[in-house]
Amino acid sequence: MIQIKHKETGEVLFEGEADSLAGKKLVGKNFKGADFSGLVLRKCVFDSDNLNGCIFNKSDLEGASFLGASLKEVDFSHANLTDSNLTDAVMIGSNLSHANLTRAKLRYAKMEECDLSNARCVEADLSMADLRCNLENANLTRADVRGANLVNANLTNAKIDDADFTDADMLGAKLEGTLIDRAKNVCTKHKPFKAKKSPWWKVWAS
Fold first, then answer.
1. Which of 106, 144, 148, 149 is the most buried (most CB within 10 A)?
2. pTM confidence score
3. What is each CA distance from 196 to 24, 58, 119, 168, 204, in whole angstroms?
4. pLDDT tens digits, 116-148
5. From CA 201, how far away is CA 107, in angstroms rounded?
């Protein structure tokens, strides 16, 4: 049996007979303040959940889904989020330092004031996301950052080799130690967005 408790009060928020929540569908639940730290949660579905203030420190969330979930001020530090789906998630103020976000989908994610320092975002889909956050020392190799909001973001010493920044707004971004010539279409000057006849953001890879 597994119990998920509130990180401060100890109140039991969820109880299951299985030894693991891996693959469990927990859609539309209220887990505000829950402690999931260190758990194996592979392919778990948290779509549309209230997960504000939760702890997922060092949790294994490979392939997990958080589609449209509320994840404000969540601790994802050192978590494995490989191949996870965080599309349209609200993650304002969350801690993703040292997290593994390889191939994670974060389209339209709201990540203002998040800490992604030292995060691994290799081949992650960050297109149209709000990335006004700390990406110091993050690895964005081959990441899709098209149309993202990076105004005043901290990209100090970030690795952005072959990342695509087409139409990303990088006005005021901190790029000390970052080799911007290794990325695609980096522009630190604000450019008004002009829609094309066939907008790229309407054609997503499966």
1. 106
2. 0.90
3. 41, 42, 33, 15, 16
4. 999 999 999 999 999 999 999 999 999 999 999
5. 10
